[in-house]
Batch of 2 targets.
Target 1
Amino acid sequence: MSNELPFVNMRIRTRVCSGGVAACLVTVLTATTASAAPVRGAPGVGDPYYPGDGNGGYDVTHYDIRLTYQPETDRLSGTTTILATSTAELSSFNLDFALDVESVRVNNRPARVERDPADPTEVVVVPEEVVGKGEPMTVVVRYADTPSEVAVDGVTAWKLTETGALAVDEPHIAEWWFPSSDHPTDKATYDVSVEVPDDVVALSNGVLAGTSKQRVGWTRWNWRSVEPQATYLTFLAVGDYDVRYSTTPSGLPSVTAYETTLGDSRAAAEASIERTPEVVEFLEGLFGPYPFEAQGGVVSTGLDFALENQTRPVYDAGFFSRGSNLSVVVHENAHQWFGDSVSLGRWSDIWLNEGFASYAEFLWSEHVGEGTADELARYLYESIPADDEFWQVLPGDPGADNQFHSAVYDRGALAVHALRTTVGDEVFFELLRTWLDERRGGHGTVEEFIALAEKLSGKQLDEVFDTWLFTKGKPKVGPSGAEVRAAVAEPESYREIAFTHEQLAKRQ
């Protein structure tokens, strides 16, 4: 959010005196500068679901997070340095953070810290000197707390495990371990450095820049992410993990890790996660080049979901309780394009993340000969009764309470398939690659995606999107996949398309 300074009002005044026109006609240029007082940066970016998320008045470019964590006591302490640029003349600004703050410095000067009584995650920072518009800001925050004891709106997103802790969740997790502008539209690069006892490891995003020791019994793990990354996709996993380091066929570093408490699920987890480079190679053929500097995955306990943390998804062990599960690996790695590289512009745009990641599972199924998208779609469509609440949730704007409802995933995937059958494969895959290429490292909205789809297809697509994304109720049952493909040339025929997908037992 930008707060523009008022314009400078220029007036010309003419004064006549005795002594001749040439000598005495004086044109006086006066300037009245309507210089407003510095502003307080807004406490949020105005997201319709989470108005307090993110902060106005500045844009973050980099986070340097340097921490020490003791699993035995769940004590987290350290410093986060934020590099940002002001977008207004600031007398104060906000950070999104729930832990106890010891001190804040802005451009090397101590700053005053206040808590917003209406929202405990809003930390108001009042610098000693006003920050000019367009100026660089270096904000250093020192803090210490016990994250598992901190609740926001009755929720504690920090998760303790048998061997350590996880900072993994959506839509919010940063508040429990680093101060930030917590919205997907304000991406940054990251250095994450965490010191932990020698008997556990600290895992995060990107490339392992190295480990070091400064005192007996402790090891510091240093991770670097060089591509723009959203706050909720930045994670920390501390615990007893077996870690593997390798290089993918494309030359990228890969880090996979398995918590030592996985039990009988360990082999199935490895049989799934170690195929990540194969999955990524398949997805590159659909979506274009992989957008990041590293790959991998972490399997842990204590989540009950999987999350597409940038470069390194984290999976709950339960996904592998019945054997290998490539579907969830496909889903979370498809998010590296849809959700991570191109993030949602508002949390109401969640379909742009989950609908396409779920549809990638359809495409993988076709790839490995386990059913076409039409076959899978018909099965799901027919398995959900018309009176099921599933059909009352709108994937295009599900509401904050239903962001992760199964309809967002599965009806969302049906919407993607409806689009594919309406515009044809050539336009469909061109659309996906164009969307991802043009917005790489940025974000987008559902409306912007629809506009691009109409531009590339040359078709008016309101009806197909309205039916599958924004209209309650079960769309009419349609013909077989073969009949659908024969009807693609008729734009109105999308209402007769039936789709299907086998749901994951647990996912996010």
Note: The chain has three domains: 38-239, 242-284+293-325, 343-496.
Target 2
Amino acid sequence: MAYFNNQKEPVQSVETNVWSCVSDDCQGWMRENYSFDKEPACPICKSEMKQEVRVIPEMK
């Protein structure tokens, strides 16, 4: 499909399971399927992480 006037095709957003850092000072998070650990540590601050659902752009 062609888009004119430098308009880009809209990106679809989907609900995705993620791991989110529990530390108040850190905003780290990662997609659930990017970790091999059952309960990963935050890659930024090494704190615990909890599971949650976020609406983020779909990866193809």
Note: Residues 18-57 form one domain.
